[in-house]
Queue: 4 jobs
Job 1
Amino acid sequence: DADVTQTPRNRITKTGKRIMLECSQTKGHDRMYWYRQDPGLGLRLIYYSFDVKDINKGEISDGYSVSRQAQAKFSLSLESAIPNQTALYFCATSDSLAGMNTGELFFGEGSRLTVL
Amino acid sequence: AQSVTQPDIHITVSEGASLELRCNYSYGATPYLFWYVQSPGQGLQLLLKYFSGDTLVQGIKGFEAEFKRSQSSFNLRKPSVHWSDAAEYFCAVVNTGGFKTIFGAGTRLFVKA
């Protein structure tokens, strides 16, 4: 089983619908992230969380919200989806408590969202 | 501001040929530098990383990268490419706090027989 699991892997929805992407991890890491990948733009950070009580906006948080339900779970919500939110979304984790915190990220397999 | 530039959007090499993917970064101090690979339909996987010491670092799958401070570069190399290396490659820089990763736009590698 994957250490970082994302559900759903693929989703097609309509403009205005509420969508939730879920992420769970078994790595025991404290930090979790949501990234968005668009062709030619690389990965851009949407939100990140350093622990259950800590949520921070990334560079493109508008139109998104998150919830850290437990150390192992971090969900991303689109309250009212719009077509330009069509993208590949990645959840990632990192371990700040490692011997040397270099920020290495461990990724899920991605959730492809299409908004019609 | 921190930034990462990968000048090549895509590169095509023949199987067995050598490979070099370019990466330039902008950062005030010595950053932590990473190369990740994304195979089709997969998440990103770490190839190698540099944070101190020897400027030539070895990674998985026969890849290596060299940190050149004077050129603000961290180019990825492989002496002989295999068809399974076809993927997208991302260079990334992390601040010294270890919590903010900036990714380049990626370079897609095509391997021809």
Job 2
Amino acid sequence: SQQGEEDPQALSIQEGENATMNCSYKTSINNLQWYRQNSGRGLVHLILIRSNEREKHSGRLRVTLDTSKKSSSLLITASRAADTASYFCATNNAGNMLTFGGGTRLMVKP
Amino acid sequence: NAGVMQNPRHLVRRRGQEARLRCSPMKGHSHVYWYRQLPEEGLKFMVYLQKENIIDESGMPKERFSAEFPKEGPSILRIQQVVRGDSAAYFCASSLLDRQGETQYFGPGTRLLVL
């Protein structure tokens, strides 16, 4: 099974609402990253949180990390239709290779 | 400053043919990673290469798949005798350094369809 598993698998919200996506992983990590993928496109790096950090912000994004529960969450505030995409967490535990979860497909309705 | 480039963007092959996927990393990047994405799934690591060296191929199928990153030119992922199960999107990423947490920049992917 994959190192990272996102929850929910799909999320549909109205523009302006907040979107929360969760990620759980199994082994110890050095850092956890969140990526975004628009349909049919490559991945775009959003944010990285290190294992000794608990929370990080970047614009409308807020990421938390709980190493005791081996989980992370990505919060997108005041969502926009342009935020519609798939969001993946990825862990980095050996070398620089990334282990991805299955993704959350977010749809933001205008 | 061009990003990671991959070509072709779409590739159709019949069973038994060979597929060659190319990746040109960002300028100055010497670390290349290949990932495969099946429909509705996340990306799975395949292989990590530096110039003229395969560093980690733990995610690569043992047969029919090979990768190289020559001193000059793009990195190549080669799939011989393709089967329908090889249909997927193949993404290449590059990074400046190989330390943990170094941002990987992804290309747009090559979508392989095996008929």
Job 3
Amino acid sequence: RKEVEQDPGPFNVPEGATVAFNCTYSNSASQSFFWYRQDCRKEPKLLMSVYSSGNEDGRFTAQLNRASQYISLLIRDSKLSDSATYLCVVMDSSYKLIFGSGTRLLVRP
Amino acid sequence: EPEVTQTPSHQVTQMGQEVILRCVPISNHLYFYWYRQILGQKVEFLVSFYNNEISEKSEIFDDQFSVERPDGSNFTLKIRSTKLEDSAMYFCASRALAGGDNEQFFGPGTRLTVL
């Protein structure tokens, strides 16, 4: 089983749409959870940390379910500039990051 | 806003040559990392470094790889004898000591091409 698993997509949505990404992780000892965004041939950039209580940052909402080892990201009112690859990332007990393969989002006009 | 910087942005080398990739982490950070991403694949952990020594290394980080913090600002990754399969983007990251959400901040990467 992959350590961090994501649907690769692509998700092709119109501007203004709401889109949801899901991710599962295998190591129950993982301690921190993140969504990063990566543009083509660029570095991963932190989008948001993910908490069990859920957290929201503008149009982005992230949720963690530790019991199910499941992480989600919801993007509301998609913009063209949201087109990117979204990386589900887990920090293990030794503080290294384990990356998913990413979910590609294409927002069309 | 403080950021991680990396040089060079692109390095082309011949197989068997040594390369040194350089990183300047965020100034008050104490944990440093190297990751790599082969084209079309996921980002993979290589090594973590704290208090002037390696904390953890992956299976990828074999005897051909080494890291060093030669002064108070630079953090380097050396590949002694490059192979074709070392071609990848290499990202440096740093993390503050404690507190917050343990976020790691990434540099822009060095694209290594081995011919």
Job 4
Amino acid sequence: DTEVTQTPKHLVMGMTNKKSLKCEQHMGHRAMYWYKQKAKKPPELMFVYSYEKLSINESVPSRFSPECPNSSLLNLHLHALQPEDSALYLCASSQVPGEVYGYTFGSGTRLTVV
Amino acid sequence: DQQVKQNSPSLSVQEGRISILNCDYTNSMFDYFLWYKKYPAEGPTFLISISSIKDKNEDGRFTVFLNKSAKHLSLHIVPSQPGDSAVYFCAANNAGGTSYGKLTFGQGTILTVHP
């Protein structure tokens, strides 16, 4: 298995909703990442998990809450989002924290906040 | 401050010809570079990478060149095929630092290969 799987592929949520994005990989990678990509912009890093511990939070608002329950799974919990948070949310993983060997992205979740 | 720049928003080439995509960076701490291909509403797909200890890496139709003194890299695709039409992102990493695998992306270049 050489894939990063993200669910759901599309999500529409209201500003008062609570939802979660899910990311899964079974490549034995020990680093996992969340990126956000707005239209016509490059992906921007949000969070990095190394060995299931949060290593980097790129000053992301608290309405985004990441969670790494085990080495294969990464969640992004969403609460009280704003319309400007609408974007493609990408999960990625790499073999060893701090290195980019085998850096693989999932297909993303297209999030629309209404 | 944009540390990775792709100054050409778009590039159009004829099938069979060479496509050259360029990327410049300003952070001298970057020591590993990657190229990704991306279709709309999909995640980036890894193409090829290069370490700063090399000046060239080749994989099939794809070759990446790195000029450290100029802080410039380029991706050559030969021969170009219509299926290569996509957005191409250059990304950089400071593997020797405390970036924890953070990739910094350029703005992307839209490549269109005409039959």
